[in-house]
Amino acid sequence: MTQQPQSLIGLAKIMRLAFAGNNLSELTSELVGRVAASGSDAAALLDLSVVNQLHGQRETALELQWQALQLQQHYRLQSNPFRPSVRVLAIMGPGEVMANTPIEFLVEDSDIALEILYVGAGLPLVHDIPKHDVAFVAACESDSNQQLLRQLEAVMSYWPQPHINRPQQIAKLARDGLSDWLSGIEGVAVVASRRVSREELVDQAAVELNNTPLIVRPANSHAGHGLMRVETTTELADYLATQPEEEFSIAPFVDYRSPQDGLYRKYRVASVAGKAYPAHMALSPRWMVHYLNADMVENADNRAAEAHFMDSFDWEFGERHSAALAAIDARIGLEYYSIDCGETADGRLLVFEIDSGAVVHSMDPVELFPYKRPHMQKLFSAFHGLVKRTVWGQAAESATSARRRRMA
Q1: DSSP code, position 139
Q2: Is the pTM of this model over 0.85?
């Protein structure tokens, strides 16, 4: 008998609570109580896994997730609309939050229902595909997902419904191969990251640090984890003493400060069906810019600069880099992804990373960021349109094929 899906509170709602300053203790107690009361409440286990990840308890979170997935692989959101216009099936793999596209943020408060199906190593094969109108390949590029993406590429070629984001293209988004993939595009500079072992890092740094500082981070890390600029072999030795990993990504440091004010600006641009949309901009006197460390809440001037970036995107940043963004889109070959980027001193688009799993959201408080929500709603509406066109286009194609068969 087919298992009925359990309903999740979900990543988006839990992250909203945390983003608003809630310590999640009340939610944690509720979820722990549900788990204790029932040995089969997979949804509570999975939601509790998200809470633990947000608290930095990675190992506990992954263990809770694994327990949940042994009980259930198919979930839906409690917030799904009662009469959805479209049902999306997000195909995910086990792992941390960033292992999968956080699609919940893209469809929340819409007429689109989200079903979630976990697949991958160690999980049973799925024989009953949940009912849906369109599938979305949510598994992101990572070492742990490479095998899953290869398997999904074969599976999606005969999937019964249309799907968004081809696994083969997602698999190519590895940070360490991006500069080769995007080479030769006019107006684009790519941070040339490559992967090395600990021993290779020590050997190569002895030569390369004579010319330029290096950016070093553990392989497969994100969100600035273990990221450091090193300028001497002594700094590198000190860095390695704090990092247990055996593989690292290294890249030459690119000084992307603005010639006008000396600040570093990091942009996130989302691409939906080939069109670029502003997601956010952070600026800082520090080279390692992340939105959460860029004083966006405390600094009204920073918010004003971000507002200008978003409000003028179509005729300034977006127009300035329109040819570069179009050429990148042609290479990437995905319907949805995001680009983290800056601008070089000579005006080129400086690509740090391209990913299908970056968090694109509207969680920022409206009273401080009134300019953001209209732009995010425009982006979300574009995603909703992509989903619906994918469904209706397939339906129209099927109807045309049926008419041709009848006329033959």
Answers
A1: B
A2: yes
